Amino acid sequence: MPHPRIGRLAWLLASTALALLAPAPASPGARAQQPPATAAAEALDFAIAPQPLASALALFGRQAGWQFSAEASLLEGRASPGVTGRMSRAAALHRLLAGTGLAARGGESGVVMLQPLPAPPASSAETTLPEVSVAAATPRATDPVQGYLATLGASAMRGDTPLVETPQSLSVVPRDQMRDTASSSLSDALAYTPGVTSQSSTFSRAVDDFMIRGFNVADAYSGMMRDGLRLAPNVYAMAQEPYGLERIEVVRGAASVLYGQLAPGGLVNSLSKRPTEAPFSEVNLSAGSQGRAQVSGDTSGRLNEDGTLLYRLTGLWRDGQNWVDHVRDDRVYIAPAITWKPDAETALTLLASYQRTSTQFAPPMPYAVLSAGTMPRDRFIGEPGFDKFEVEAYSLGYTLERRLSDAVTWRSSARGFSSTGAWDYLTYGSLAANGRLSRGVSVRDEQSSSITLDNSLETRFATGPVQHTLLAGIDYFHALYSSHRYQGSATSLSIYDPVYGSTPVVNRSVDRGSRTTGEQYGAYLQDQARIDRLVLSLGLRYDEANRLTHVYRSGSDVKQNDSAVTSRAGAVYLFDSGFAPYVSFSQSFAQVIAVDANGNPLDPSHSTQYEAGLRYQPPGTELLFSSAVYELTQTNALTTDAAGNSLQYGKVRSRGLELEARGQFGPLGLVASYAYTDARIRKSALPEEVGQRVGLMPLNTAALWATYRMDRLGAQGLTLGGGLRYFGEDNIPGYSGDVPAYTLVNAMARYELGDLLPQLPGAALSLNVANLTGEKYFTCSGTSTGCRYGAPRSWLATLSYRW
Questions:
Q1: Could you tell me whether strands 668-683 and 646-665 are parallel, antiparallel, or unpaired per DSSP bridges?
Q2: Could you count the other beta carbons within 10 Å of the beta carbon of residue 649?
Q3: Secondary structure class of 40 (helix, strand, coil)
Q4: For 318, phi and psi rounded to 5 degrees?
Q5: Out of 3.55.50.30, 3.40.109.10, 3.40.50.720, 3.20.20.70, which CATH number does the structure's domain 32-127 have?
Q6: 585 CB burial (10 A radius; 0-12, 13-18, 19+)
Q7: Which of 487, 624, 671, 687 is the most exposed place for a label (fewest CB within 10 A)?
Q8: pLDDT, tens only, 345-395
Q9: What distance in Å separates the CA atoms of residue 27 and residue 31, rounded to the nearest whole number?
């Protein structure tokens, strides 16, 4: 008999093949169970508060099963009065569009078109529409966002769900925000997100590694996602390039019910740029501090006349130096994408990427050295001809969506990922009083690969007055991470008068690395039930997670076979006033990769979260205010005793308050956040750690970013912006010293050159300055020997042209 795991994999692959090969569904008319006029007249319950028209249409589409086609510019700046009560779809749509200046028309193809209303309709025929079905709703969570406010999320509920209907903290960072803040890393992009912290850019320029609500999120197992799928099984396998992203979504808190094993803090899901029907192209030329030179470009449109094939090509090339001596900051990124839409019911998108990063790793240093300012901030402690951090990564995948009927949608996605890395650097040893630094050697040759699949079926139906959106799915994740690690010796270095040129000696006879193969199989079920204004969410998941670790030095193998059941329950109430309070309960689990003193693998950790929140979207505005309080507890946490043995009775509890505001108010764009995070170690094998706060997670963090278009003040085409980020005093568990608080100031200016160059209406010139005041600061990863200096003042100027 075949191995049961092979059977599960075959089941997943077979379901994917069926999705791709299933016959096209019947036409809308053939599928309808009743005549179109009867379907349009069927009474349904609607509960849509006054809000921007784009988000109101998205809600209407979910409640009525109708979908729309409209130019994005028609929706900008328009607000809907909403609709509440039991009525026909046509009557509800008529009320939803009241006062917007738009009319709805149903064409022969069944597409509901939105267009300007030249005059009041002469009869009600304008809104007496047939039952319709199209391939994609307008808008979607994967669509570009104008400004800083996204009203739909793709990650928390695994589908296009309005943020106001989501019973869990969720922040969305759109492309416009990444552009305005000149983000060159995910850490830059998430700098204004509540509850999220990271190390200084010395580290984050090469690695995506975050703390969310006091827990580490760093790789595919702990919560780093791309397009809803797990990405790299190793934190050093690839730092994602923000220019290739349409948005970044952060789900905070326990969230295993739809994804399987995750860190308690939540997940970071990056959504790739996808082909668009509206053609466009852009080119950006940048120059900045430390000799940085960068070219990036993005183009999209149709590949054929009927629009069944769309393309997008995104690329970036960077050559630069870091502010630390002898450290490069080079990158190449290219991402082609193709969408095939053979009919109104099917959309298949192929996504590929290649990325190469060439830099040097920043070794951590002791707290005492950085706090005293002994080490010069730009000092390189390695050898220019030896140190390197070179990572090359490839990915290829697809997303498929197919409407099998008006009520049933099949979604399938998969991706293969491969990465190789050469990571050699000299480590920080001991520093003598005369400034002589002893150095160690670390050489790592690494390889990572993964295959991820997810298949789900979404079904909409009613049971009496309750409207259901039922999501059932299965997923699979296979990962390999191999790391060969060697040590050696090097000569000492004077930190005040460094002389480079020595050759480190590497001992390759002892391999201190390992090879880990992991698999996860999961099945999940989620129901979003709407009863008038009340939206209930219930979710349940079962997982099997297996890992085999082979230790090269000893030749031993460690096997871990675990399973878990996780759940989530939440409730949101939608008031006409725009307020949406919610409560939720959620769980997560994650395997603990360690063995006890006897060589036995440890059990998974488990986490439980209770959260209550309130969102407020003022009617008729493009603003969203969010707040949340929570308690998040992790049990079976890994703890280490004084002898270095791994034990498993650790407990970490995080309690906090998070506030966020974002959106547009006329010419003002705004992102503001505050987080109070009390994440403490409640149980540990080391008594001095009990009661201590988790490292790299201060009690208080706050951030503000704002831009203002100066047209109303007479400066046509000029936009000014700036940001403040406050990082409170940080604790190092079990250590007497604290990391000092610091505040960073950023600034930007952008000028649209159309007035000066009428022949180039899409040209713009921008300038960004980071750490404007030259704040001197450092961050520590949670230990007294894991500290790094922060980046000094830097600038970046960009000339852009879009057509």
A1: antiparallel
A2: 12
A3: helix
A4: -135, 135
A5: 3.55.50.30
A6: middle
A7: 687
A8: 999 999 999 999 999 999 999 999 999 999 999 999 999 999 999 999 999
A9: 6
Cα 647 to Cα 383, 514, 545, 784: the distances in Å are: 38, 21, 21, 21
**Contact assessment for residue 739 and residue 750, using Cβ atoms and an 8 Å cutoff:** no
- Per the structure block, which two tokens stand in for 298? 């993005």
Dist. CA 111–CA 134, nearest whole Å:
6
Phi and psi (nearest 5°) for 204? -75, -10
Nearest residue to 249 via CA among 177, 181, 200? 177
Which residues sit opposite 9 in a β-bridge?
none
User: What is the rounded CA–CA span in Å between residue 289 and residue 502?
Assistant: 29
Q: Cα(407)–Cα(404) distance, rounded to whole angstroms?
A: 8
Name the CATH code of domain 152-272 (choices 2.170.130.10, 2.40.160.20, 1.10.3720.10, 3.40.50.170).
Answer: 2.170.130.10
Specify the pairing of strand 210-212 against strand 196-198. antiparallel
Q: What's the Cα-to-Cα distance from 558 to each of 40, 517, 562, 593, 599, rounded to whole Å?
A: 61, 11, 13, 10, 8
**C-alpha angle with apex 765: 764 to 767, nearest 5 degrees?**
140
Which percentage of the chain shows pLDDT scores above 90? Answer: 75
Taking alpha carbons only, the member of 199, 188, 322 closest to residue 789 is: 199
Rg (C-alpha) for the chain, rounded Å, is 27
Nearest residue to 586 (alpha-carbon basis) of 603, 615, 616, 606: 606
Q: Scan for tokens 């949670």, then name that residue.
A: 782
User: Do residues 267 and 251 make contact, with C-beta atoms less than 8 angstroms apart?
Assistant: yes
Tokens for 479? 């990962």
Alpha carbons 151 and 153: distance in angstroms, whole number? 7
**Could you please report the per-residue DSSP string of 227-263?**
TTEE--SSTTS-PPPGGGEEEEEEEES--GGGTSS--
Mean pLDDT, rounded, for 279-284: 95
